[in-house]
Design a protein that fits this description.
Elements lengths: L1 H21 L3 H4 L9 H15 L7
Helix pairs in contact: 1-3
Length: 60
């Protein structure tokens, strides 16, 4: 059961990262435009930044 949670979390964060990138808000979570970041990392950074700031999370 534990691995399914990891799979779903990884998928959610990756899709969140793709949405951040597609919306042009990459610079909100990647100030130095580091090319080594993955969509997963963009998603994780977005969620960490969005929760205290009230930014929109991907819900669907």
């Amino acid at each position: 059961m534990g691995w399914q949670i990891i799979v779903v979390a990884t998928l959610y964060l990756t899709v969140q990262g793709i949405a951040v990138f597609a919306s042009g808000k990459r610079h909100w979570v990647d100030l130095h435009w580091f090319d080594g970041h993955t969509y997963l990392k963009f998603g994780w950074n977005w969620v960490k930044a969005a929760l205290p700031r009230g930014w929109q999370l991907l819900l669907r």
